[in-house]
Amino acid sequence: MSPTVKNASEDASANAAAPLRRAMETIRSLRAQLEAAHGTRRVAVVGAGLRAPGGITDRETYWQAVSEGRDLTGELPAQRRPAGDWDGLQTRGGYLDDVLGFDADFFGVSPREARNLDPQHRLLLEVAWEAFEDAAIPPAAVAERAGVFVGITGQDYRTWAADDPSPSWLIGNGHCFSAGRIAHTLGLQGPVLAIDTACSSSLVAVHQACRALAAGDCDVAAAGGVNLVLSPRSTAEIQRTSALSPDGRCRPFDAQANGFVRGEGCGLLVLKRLADAERDGDRILGVIEGTGVNHDGGSTGFTAPNMLAQARLIESVLKTAGLSASDIGYLEAHGTGTPLGDPIELEAARMALGTTGRTWHVGSVKANLGHTEAAAGVLGLLKALLCLHHRRIPPQARFETLNPRIELGDGLTVPREAVNWDPSAGRCAGVSSFGMSGTNAHAVLSPYENIPHGRTVRPAPASGFPVSAHTESALLTLASRYADRLPDVGYEEFAHTAAHGRTRLRHTAWIKADGVREAREVLKALAAGVDDGRIQRLTPQDPLPEEAAGTGRAVVSLPGYPWERRVHSIRPLPTA
User: Fold this and answer.
1) pLDDT at residue 28 above 90?
2) Which one of 58, 403, 441, 510 is most buried, by most CB atoms within 10 A?
């Protein structure tokens, strides 16, 4: 064959292959865009703050209580009993120890303004601060790109307005001000929303935060919700609907289920895009693979659940996350313990997730806490995250005999005892939350198991760290807490987190110590008010010693801030 003929043949072949090459390049480009979009949707939980009944103030005590299947409900404390004629009111529930105390001076709130400030807003401020400290992210470091998303429904404190109708009452009680005050106090300038969809509010808030992160509206988000039972009026109204358990026991999925009990709580998560959290070396508690929200639409009644809507939502979230039903090994259900609501929810779960070929589990933390309403979704999500982290599924409290209206099928089980998580039956967890408003929310979580290449696991050696607080007395208390929590190993991580992961406050002491044993000695001396030469006092303007400059970012949990609470209320309790 002549060269001319050969070249013409090669040109023809090349021209014929060109469309195929372009098509393959387009496919690769689209696949890369799809993978990038999916990576953007994946959200890391890098910190958490919470309050739950039973004196629970952190993730460790929360897991201990839930993993043991403990009942954290009880009778309304005597000092919170309503005055007036409230005979027959259901007073059993899940209550926090302190709902009126508030460290107003720490947040720059005057005593008069504090009195007019809904205790739910007060609680959110404290828990938001704790969540950022748990994430080891000083709010000032992310101020311009951080958002706040709060689920809140209760309006009990507004019933006290007639006692002090001052202008500060409006901005102390409107729902929008709950999120706005967090942003104002911490200096955050991203999107700020307060969301009220009744019982699904906090999980809807998490969904909105994940959407804002994916859209690039913010780089860090605090998301969750709060609920306090401050007036007997709202309890009386709910009781008239026959939704409350007459005997004050919440029994999800059980044959004796007869309603829920009210609960108090607060939870806020600090969220970042997974890729950003890996880049920044954050400690990652778990991954939110996807979230979704829908509405019941035209169900049998305005407040009645819709089985098909619930099933469609679960299917939609799985599809968006690129997962299948077989990936779900545990479902943290809404599970309020109503005799008809639970069967509808579990039938919807069966429709979406199947019941054959594998064993998967369902539970509801409401049996432990009561129904924390606007905070229920985020506290359920926290339980699911801890189950993933510990690879263990707790026993379902108050479960003895299956509700005869519920059909579990071959694979779905309600655990009577704690069981080890079998990832082969599904490595992810689903979390459902349904609002009386008809707004449903669902999230799918996965454990975080990847350590990115090039990530610095340990910071540089440390020869000291700061302890910082708003007042001298709080400083001494915090020093004692540090001494109790110093780990036997990992001193560098502890010192690095204390130096770089917490905000410098008015009173700061630099602890000079090369190791754990010496650090404990110096901390105990500081806590006792002893003048120790290894304690260096710093003003807020003083730079930290050079040895605090360490490289890397290995985050560990430090003790929570010692709030100095004073009671700020118009009167101890509302009257009839």
Assistant:
1) no
2) 441
CA distance 264 to 235: 12
Is residue 49 a contact partner of residue 268, using CB atoms and an 8 Å limit?
A: yes
Q: How far apart are alpha carbons 261 and 176 in whole angstroms?
A: 27
Instruction: Look at residues 421, 509, 413, 501 and name the one whose alpha carbon lies nearest to residue 468.
Output: 509
Q: Model-level pTM?
A: 0.91
Calpha distance 260→80 (Å, rounded): 20
Cα–Cα distances in Å, from 425 out to 36, 183, 324, 428?
A: 28, 42, 12, 9
User: Using CA atoms, how far apart are residues 386 and 368, in angstroms rounded to an integer?
Assistant: 15
Q: How far apart are CA 456 and CA 566, in angstroms?
A: 43
For residue range 437-451, list pLDDT tens digits in order.
999 999 999 999 876
Relative orientation angle of helices 376-390 and 59-67, to the nearest 10 degrees: 80
**Which tokens sit at 568?**
């700020």
Q: Which of 489, 538, 487, 490 is nearest to 512 (CA)?
A: 538
Quickly list DSSP for 279-297: HHT----EEEEEEEEEE--
> What is the tens place of the pLDDT at every residue in 190-246?
999 999 999 999 999 999 999 999 999 999 999 999 999 988 888 999 999 999 999
Q: Which of 450, 333, 447 is nearest to 380 (CA)?
A: 333
Task: Return the structure tokens found at 473.
Answer: 């007395």
Query: Pairing between strand 428-434 and 328-332?
Result: parallel
Could you give the domains of the chain? Answer: 43-85+94-446 (3.40.47.10), 464-549 (3.30.70.3290)
- State both tokens at 505: 């406050």
Tell me if residue 229 falls in helix, strand or coil: coil
Q: Which pair of structure tokens corresponds to residue 48? A: 């958490």
- Nearest C-alpha neighbor of 90 from the set 186, 195, 232, 189: 232
| DSSP string over 493-527 | HHHHHHHHSS---SEEEEEE-SSHHHHHHHHHHHH
Please give the full DSSP string across 165-220, using - where no structure is assigned. Answer: --HHHHHHHSHHHHHHHHHHHHT--S-EEEE-BTBTHHHHHHHHHHHHHHHTS-SE
DSSP character at residue 41: H
Classify residue 373 by its DSSP letter: G
CA 246 to chain centre: 30
Helices 119-135 and 175-186 cross at an angle (nearest 10°) of 40
DSSP state of 84: S
